[in-house]
Amino acid sequence: MSLINIFNIAGSAMTAQSQKINVIANNLANIDSTIYKNGKFYPYIAKKVIFELDSLKNSKIGGVKISGIIDDPSPMKMIYDPNNPMADKKGYVLTSNVNPITEIVDNISAARSYQANIEVLKTAKNMIIKTLTITE
Amino acid sequence: MFDKINEIFDFNQKALNLYAKRQEILSANIANADTPGYKSIDINFKNELTKMLDKKNVKNSNILLKKTSPYHLNAKSKNLFLLKTIPITTNQIKQDGNTVNMDRERIEFINNSLKYQSSLVFMKNEIKNMMYVLKG
């Protein structure tokens, strides 16, 4: 039944969008974090979620799946802070490339997409209920 | 006698099936609004419905199962139909190659849902008329 499939499609989109919001929250929370690796301190690198079409069997249509979470390729920020223990000889500190503005804009966009999918679910639910109660 | 009743519901049944399928396609478009490279698709409702109502076409598209034993039951031909999808052209070009126009998708989604429900109401009234005659 096609209408039941809508639940899977919209559901997968909601899962993907909430995962994106999760990653955004992670990025914003770790905006000042450092990572300790191989005896060295590195600034936190922003993560990005990549979506992909998850097509149903023998079909052109389908839901969404997350094809991967990649590191944001945008450059790190250099900040002059000679008192920081991580500063280099000239007094500059490499800090995380998380951009709060892009993160918040992405967050709003993901939340709106999530809402749009909830509306889709609501409509599909109403249609199924109306179909089931056709004899009443 | 029940053959006739079947015939009465035949048109509405086919229309409802097609509306449900289109609803699924539109929901997939909405779900993939953020997927890079996803191309928005739709069907030509008029063409698909005439294809379905054309009885000759239905007979040709019957696919039967291969019987390897005389005890095998005859597989009933289900209401299977292959839809021809068409890509939607849009003047909004996004950077990631996605062609989903959210305004159009949402309007079509609501439009399709209301048409489905109106078809359902017509069917309901036919059932009501029938019950009226049966009960006297």
Low-confidence stretches of chain B: none
Helical content of chain A stands at 40-55%
Helix/strand class of chain A: alpha+beta
Question: Class by helix and strand content of chain B?
Answer: mainly alpha
The proportion of strand residues of chain A reads: 25-35%
> Average pLDDT value of chain A?
90
Low-confidence stretches of chain A: none
- Counted up, domains of chain B total 1
The major pleated sheet of chain A works out as: 2 strands, antiparallel
What's the total number of strands of chain A?
6
Order of helices and strands of chain B: HEHHEH
Quickly count the helices of chain B. 4
Subunit structure (chain B): The basal body constitutes a major portion of the flagellar organelle and consists of a number of rings mounted on a central rod.
Organism (chain B): Buchnera aphidicola (Acyrthosiphon lactucae)
Family (chain B): Belongs to the flagella basal body rod proteins family.
Function (chain B): Structural component of flagellum, the bacterial motility apparatus. Part of the rod structure of flagellar basal body.
Protein model, in words:
The complex is a heterodimer of chains A (136) and B (136). Chain A has two helices and six strands. By secondary structure, chain A is α+β, with helices and mostly antiparallel strands. Chain A has one domain. In chain A, strands 1-2 form a two-stranded antiparallel sheet. In chain A, strands 3-4 form a two-stranded antiparallel ribbon. A two-stranded antiparallel sheet of chain A has the order 5-6. In chain A, a hairpin with a 6-residue loop joins strand 3 and strand 4. The mean pLDDT of chain A is 90. With 136 residues, chain B is mainly alpha-helical. Chain B has one domain (1-135). Chain B contains four helices and two strands. Chain B has helices at 2-31, 45-53, 55-60, 102-135, and strands at residues 41-43, 85-87. A two-stranded antiparallel sheet of chain B has the order 1-2. The longest helix of chain B is centred in the last third of the chain and has 34 residues, at 102-135. The radius of gyration of chain B is 20 Å and the shape is flat. Chain B starts with a helix and ends with a helix. In chain B, 22% of the residues are buried. Chain A binds chain B through residues 1-3, 5-6, 9-10, 12-13, 17, 50-53, 60-64, 109-110, 113, 116-117, 119-120, 123-124, 126-127, 130-131, 134-135, and chain B through 16-17, 20-21, 23-25, 27-28, 30-36, 38, 41, 85, 102, 106, 109-110, 113, 116-117, 120, 123-124, 127.
